[in-house]
Amino acid sequence: MLKDYEFWFVVGSQFLYGPAVLETVAARASEMARQMNDAGHLPCKIVYKVTAKTNQEITEIVREANYDDRCAGLITWCHTFSPSKMWINGLAALRKPYCHLATQYGEAIPNEDIDMDFMNLNQSAHGDREHGFIAARLRMPRNVIAGHWKEETLQKRLGEWMRAAVGVAFSRNLKVMRFGDNMREVAVTEGDKVEAQIKLGWQVNTWPVGTLVEVMDQVTEAEIDAQMDAYRSRYTMPADHLDSVRYQAREEIAIRRMMDGEGCQAFTNTFQDLYGMRQLPGLASQDLMANGYGYGGEGDWKVSAMTAILKAMGEGKYGGTAFMEDYTYHMVQGEAFSLGAHMLEVCPSLAADRPRIEVHPLGIGDREAPARLVFEGHPGKAIVVSLVDMGGRMRLICQDIECIPPAMSMPNLPVARVMWRPEPSLATGIECWITAGGAHHTVLSYDVTAEQMRQWAAMMEIEYVHIGRETTPEALEEELFLKDLAWKLR
Ligand code: MN
């Protein structure tokens, strides 16, 4: 939860200017943290910690930050000049996200009042450059945000970075529960789980489907009644086939019980391993996603983990974040778009209207007709994100998209669906996505931006590829070639 995290405000200075200046710096830093918290644009609290003047003070605050679970990152700033050699030991040990806020206390230069005392107290332009050099010299991942600290736009940018940093904390503690393996013969859903744990912190492990069935058998009718009430409060119930809906409730309760028992926030399953189950979980997976859990179909643990992470980053926003799959194109001149869906499991957080529970046969998986939620996605700007394993490294691909109102009713399509135009256009967008090796499974989010994914990838130290309005296949090919060389040298 975002409210469980705080960010530590560490201000750089030195003894050169005397105790009065240091007292002023500390008082102003504390005031800035308080006012930024009160302005209401930050999702997490800023806590002013120290005006640091020595190597020891900086090393100590970094050590504390590394071990405090509440601290999701450091925000640094230099009101005065803070010689950066005293930051080296601390920054070299830093294990938390790091943002350099390049700002200054006062907004304007006071024409009549400016003298050398003012200059020595208000020299962020000077101090922040010395501070920036050492992070560049250390090759540290960090985000630099410049502007006056009272500006709403700056505070909102800082807030968006905080959400990306919370995504880092969430990732480093994430556990993914796998029921069954990846779908047979599929390449893009595979990956190096050891590398994923080293780089991203994910614990990805398997549990037997047979155990899930045992837990399902222990679910009581009263528990299913309560889950049915929860469905009724959010979704439109069908007139018949309620047994199918009740079976999904049983599955949902059991999956959640196993995940919560192990502290998992994401899961995968596959239609090829439904041992002892009468239905592929459809409604069950969809409702779990609506409650913040990550999901990936066909054993795709990477997309499941990413769904959970983007949901954590977008907490409290209401556009929606979902497991998605590119399915079919509408390749008509002037109205070209992509149709995204899945055989069942699209998160209802994207829904334009109240989702309907429907029961239809499923051609795949050789089981009973499963209950699922059917709805249209709402219009708006969004991103699709795919994490692929390039062998030796992970690549995060992010594409800007524009979701459009439903262009046709498709009355015989019994699944949730979203239509969008990828940037820079349908054809070029497809060319770029395929050139980069992006998967058919993605996380679609209206709540998280490409800029936040760039920050997250930088903090996790993985490759990032962005496909947006300005991207051309030619430039992208060149970028991928150069990045491939660079990543082999790291
Ligand atoms: Mn799929």
What's the helix and strand layout?
Elements: E1 6-12, H1 19-39, E2 45-52, H2 55-67, E3 71-78, H3 88-93, E4 98-102, H4 116-121, H5 124-137, E5 143-146, H6 152-172, E6 175-179, H7 193-200, E7 203-207, H8 209-218, H9 221-234, H10 242-262, E8 266-268, H11 283-290, E9 294-296, H12 301-313, E10 321-330, E11 337-341, E12 356-359, E13 371-374, E14 380-389, E15 394-404, E16 417-422, H13 426-436, E17 441-445, H14 450-460, E18 463-467, H15 473-489
Parallel strand pairs: 1-2, 1-3, 3-4, 4-5, 6-7, 6-8, 8-9, 15-18
Antiparallel strand pairs: 10-11, 10-17, 11-16, 12-13, 14-15, 14-17, 15-16
The structure holds manganese (II) ion (MN).
Manganese (II) ion binds next to loops.
Shape: elongated
Number of distinct beta strands: 18
Q: In percent, how helical is the residue content?
A: 25-40%
- For the CA atoms, what is the radius of gyration? 25 Å
Task: Please identify the structural class as seen in this structure.
Answer: alpha/beta
Give the bound compounds.
Answer: manganese (II) ion
The largest sheet is: 6 strands, antiparallel, barrel
Give the overall pLDDT as a whole number.
96
Strand order of the largest sheet: 10-11-16-15-14-17
Beta-strand proportion: 15-25%
Total individual domains: 2
Uncertain spans, ≥5 residues at pLDDT below 50?
none
Determine the number of helices (DSSP H or I, runs of at least 4 residues).
15
Ends distance:
34 Å
Entry summary:
The chain has 490 residues and is α/β, with parallel strands linked by helices.
Describe the structure.
The chain has 490 residues and is an alpha/beta fold. The chain has 2 domains: 2-171, Rossmann fold; 175-489, no CATH class. 40% of the residues lie in helices and 22% in strands. The chain has helices spanning 19-39, 55-67, 88-93, 116-121, 124-137, 152-172, 193-200, 209-218, 221-234, 242-262, 283-290, 301-313, 426-436, 450-460, 473-489; strands at 6-12, 45-52, 71-78, 98-102, 143-146, 175-179, 203-207, 266-268, 294-296, 321-330, 337-341, 356-359, 371-374, 380-389, 394-404, 417-422, 441-445, 463-467. The strands form 4 sheets. The protein has a 6-stranded antiparallel β-barrel. It has a 5-stranded parallel beta sheet with strand order 2-1-3-4-5, sandwiched between helices. A 4-stranded parallel beta sheet has the order 7-6-8-9, with helices on both faces. Helix 6 (152-172) crosses helix 14 (450-460), helix 9 crosses helix 10 (242-262) and helix 10 (242-262) packs across helix 11. 47% of the residues are buried. Manganese (II) ion binds next to loops. Residues 297-298, 325, 342, 441 line the site of manganese (II) ion.
